[in-house]
Amino acid sequence: MQPGRQIALKEFAQCASRSNINLNGSVERHDLHSRRPFALVYQGTLRPLGTRVAVKTIIPILSPEKDTIEEAVRQVSTLSHVQHENVLPLLGITTELYSNVSIISAWMENGNAHDYVQDQSIDPRPLVDRHDC
User: Fold this and answer.
1) Closest CA to 32 of 91, 98, 78
2) How do residues 34-53 score in pLDDT, each as one tens digit?
3) Whole-angstrom Cα distance, residue 86 to residue 69?
4) Where would a tag sit more exposed on the chain, N or C end, judged by fewer CB atoms within 10 A?
5) What angle do CA 37, 38, 44 make, to 5 degrees?
6) Dist CA 78 CA 86 (whole Å)
7) Where are the strands (E) in the chain, listed by range?
């Protein structure tokens, strides 16, 4: 890893520690679940309780390294302020998995919303809120 990237990751982790969202040393990454345009999503485990989590790892090869870390900072900042019943809360970040920034959230058994509604084997009727006119 390049020294500049290593320093940037260390600074990012320190900032996350100040915000109480640094999960370095607490996340174990498992199987690849899906590929997204700028990230890989893995299933993982949050220690010590063994909670299943989603580990969204930013792909550094698609953009310059500094831009990758800056994009992660933007995503983490945005996610840390979002509070909505339909949005999973940010649990934290880690910079220890393969020297990349990973965003940690709760694991959803049915995957993300886009993939869920695209699955033709799932009946969409329960998702529609019916109101009598």
Assistant:
1) 98
2) 888 778 899 999 999 999 99
3) 26
4) C
5) 105
6) 15
7) 27-36, 39-46, 51-58, 90-94, 102-106
pLDDT at position 66 = 60
Contact by Cβ (8 Å): 97, 37: no
Whole-prediction pTM: 0.73
- Kindly tell me the sign of the dihedral angle through the C-alpha atoms of 124, 110, 62, 58: positive
The span from the CA of 34 to the CA of 32, in Å, is 6
pLDDT at residue number 61: 60
Here the tokens at position 131 are 């109101």
